[in-house]
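Worked example

This section walks through a single chain of length 196. The input is the sequence exactly as stored; nothing has been trimmed or padded.
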Amino acid sequence: MKFFQSFCVVDSSLRILWVGGDWDDFARNNGGARALSNTILSTRLTAHIADTATADRVSQMVQAVLATKRPLHLDYRCDAPHQVRRFRLTIQPMKHGRAVMVHQLLDAVQVDPPMAAWLYDPLARSQKCSVCGAVYVNQTWLDPTLPEVEHPSKVGYTTCPTCDARIAAALRELVETGPAPEFAEGVLRQDQDRMH
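Given that input, the structure is written out below as C-alpha cells.
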C-alpha cells in the first residue's frame, strides 16, 4: 500500500490557508478536479462539503480543537467502488487560531466484486454516511461491502447516528479534559503580566 497523507490548514472561520501532501493527486484520481489546491485556497472548507450535517460536524470538531488546544482524531472511510479505504483525520491546533487537518490513509482493501458506482444527488432518497460509508437502505444503515447489500446508484450524504455519537463523544472528551496545560499556563501568564 502506497503511503498517503494530505493536509490543509484552516483559520477559525474555516478559511483554507494552505493545502499540501497528496491532496491534488487524490483529488485528480477521484473525480475531484474542482477541489485542487489552487482552486480552493482562501475559500471556506465547508463550502466544499456536500451536506450540512457533515459540514456542521467538521466545523464543531475544528472549533473544539481551537478552543481546547488539544488534538482530535477520527477514523473514517472514503471508499471507491473497487476499494474500501480507511483514513485517520487528525485535527491539530496551531498558533494564531489556526488548525491543521491531516488525512492519513490507514489501509486500502480491494472489493471483489466491486460495489455499484454511485453519484451524489442532493435529492436522492438513499443516504450515505460521509464518515463510515454506510448506506441507508430500507430504513436501516448497512455496510455496502456486505454481499447482500446493493449500493444505491444515487446518494445524498449525511452522518449516520452511530458516527454522530462517535463525534459527539470525541467532542465531549475534549471539552471535559479542558485546555491543554501549556495553553492554560500561557493564558494565565499573559493575564498576570497585564496585572503588573
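What to look for: Residues 52-68 form the longest helix (17 residues).
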